[in-house]
Amino acid sequence: MIAAATGMFIPLRxxxxxxxxxxxxxxxxxxxxxxxxxxAALLASILxxxxxxxxxxxxYHTFAVDDPKDLLSLLVFLVVGIIxxxxxGKLKExxxxxxxxxxxxxxxxxxxxxxxxxxxxxxxxxATITNLxxxxxxxxxxxxxSELKNVEDDLKRLGSSINALLDFSRLEAExxxxxxxxxxxxxxxxxxxxxxxTPQQACLKVDLPAELPPLFVDFEQFxxxxxxxxxxxxxxxxxxxxVTIRAKESGSWILVMVEDQGPGIxxxxxxxxxxxxxxxxxxxKVPSGxxxxxxxxxxxxxxxxxxxxxxxxxxxxxxMVVAIPKAEEKT
Length: 331
Known about the structure:
By secondary structure, the protein is an alpha+beta fold. It has helices at residues 2-9, 21-36, 38-56, 68-95, 100-132, 141-172, 185-195, 198-202, 219-236, 267-270, 293-303, and strands spanning 181-183, 204-207, 215-217, 243-250, 253-259, 307-312, 318-325.
């Protein structure tokens, strides 16, 4: 596939910017990783690295690189290719855990996501690198660093989309089984806050009762559950709006609530919001998302024998409620 793509690129190399080949090469790496696993994707990344250098970057037909910006472009491509190959390879391994029809379903899921969520940040990375490689412009150090920061942000966004797919696949394949222990909710929320960027931390408010029983949960899974609810609330709330985490006892349950000040969720959407790949009417406000965050949350709640639902907040906003059985119910 790399050889065929390179063969098509060579006659066109004088008409296109040097960085434009990266996106197609990366999509090939994704396809190879999906079909044949990480080793094949790693080989495809290395082959693309050398063929791009040898045939498409001047001086042609040599591995010498005269322009430092070309070398930067090649190195960024190689790193991104290895990361994508590794993640898609892991997803390929998970698909083999289930029966043949499950594996086919996961492949379809991955291809659907690649066409929408993975392609967008890859295109952004390609555009930024192509801009930096423009021969008619001489970028200063400050601008170059700013553009590379944009590349870093796009790669994080790409990684987040892949991780969401991986988490959901592990949960559906039942290969990510919970290991439950006793944890204070405040301990889990402390880990959550530490992972959030500073601007998001400033928008988060925690309001817990003085006496709250510990939770009998898998720490990593419950952290991911609350993180998905909080990030979703932050994304859909207005700028500088507060997102509040509350908790209380209710009979044999402990309720953990995430409240936002966003537009709320229409009644007809409440039954769909926890389904995979569903994005509501307000999704246009959010630049990207796999539509898996709330589906992952619902799967984790199910693994903990709990419940999750949505409540309205007046005059506007939504409250996500997670109900977890008290520890004594599980002993």
